[in-house]
Amino acid sequence: MDARAGIISAYGEYEDVLRDIRRFKSLANGSDALTKALLGNYALLDRGRPLEDLRNSIFLTALSRNSRCPLCARAQVCALDHFLPKNQFPEYSILADNLVPVCERCNRLKGDECDRTDGLLMFHAYFDEFPETEVLFAEIDVDNTVSIRYSLHHTDGIDNFTFERVRKQFDTLGLFDFYQMEAVAELTDQVDLYDETYNSSGDSGLRSILGALARGAERKGMNYWKAALYRALSRNAEFCNGGYQKLIVTSTN
């Protein structure tokens, strides 16, 4: 099989590779010359090059998510990630299905991650749905200030393999610490709302509005970081009974 026919065949097998990467080897396996030639194709996506329109059309797909990164659901997209790393699968270096708009941080942290031993891949923005079973939890502690800690819990309704993929994504991208920092900023920004609600409606009013914020955030997914945050806050009696005021000291330092 010549290289052109091999690439066409590889394109047709792409979804099969995603389902079980352990069964596949790269078309260019063992050929430095073919690897170099295939990697060189990626430059064709640059501005002013023949495949610039392809690059632009791929970035347009991010508009359905308000140009938010599908890996962290927070930062703006600015780079194209090779879901299957081009250094390991150079035949997919310009395959649109393998090119996912992501933010700079996630692109850097993901790097060439590709577990070909256990077959644990991260979630593909085009082919995978992140689980809707609740696995992401925020733990709230009200002491000298309000602290937040995110963690994953294996619950009924999610199989072991899928849960390990979720864990891999969080560990690879450092999402526990990232969401913790985002949550602190979110709470600090909203402290006036909490104060006004508590002063007018007491702890039940604050619990109600936090529950409403959780339900609104869940539209982006049960495991969206804001959904987990507001669920935890609405269930925390100490926070709702005035403990949120510990944030006021933090926000004015």
What do these coordinates show?
This protein is mostly helical. Helices cover 47% and strands 9% of the residues. It is built from 10 helices and 4 strands; from the N terminus they run ααααββαββααααα. The protein has helices at 3-12, 14-19, 32-40, 52-60, 104-110, 160-173, 175-217, 225-235, 237-240, 246-251, and strands spanning 79-82, 99-102, 136-142, 146-152. It has a two-stranded antiparallel sheet with strand order 1-2. The protein has a two-stranded antiparallel ribbon with strand order 3-4. β3 and β4 (146-152) form a beta hairpin. α7 (175-217) packs across α8. It is elongated, with a radius of gyration of 22 Å. The termini are far apart. 30% of the residues are buried. The mean pLDDT is 93.
Mean model confidence by pLDDT: 93
Distance between the termini: 67 Å
Q: What composes the largest sheet?
A: 2 strands, antiparallel
The strands making up the biggest β-sheet line up spatially as 1-2
Write a concise keyword list for the protein shown above.
about 250 residues; mainly alpha; two-stranded antiparallel sheet; 10 helices; 4 strands; elongated
Question: Short description, anyone?
Answer:
By secondary structure, the chain is mainly alpha-helical. The protein has helices at 3-12, 14-19, 32-40, 52-60, 104-110, 160-173, 175-217, 225-235, 237-240, 246-251, and strands spanning 79-82, 99-102, 136-142, 146-152.
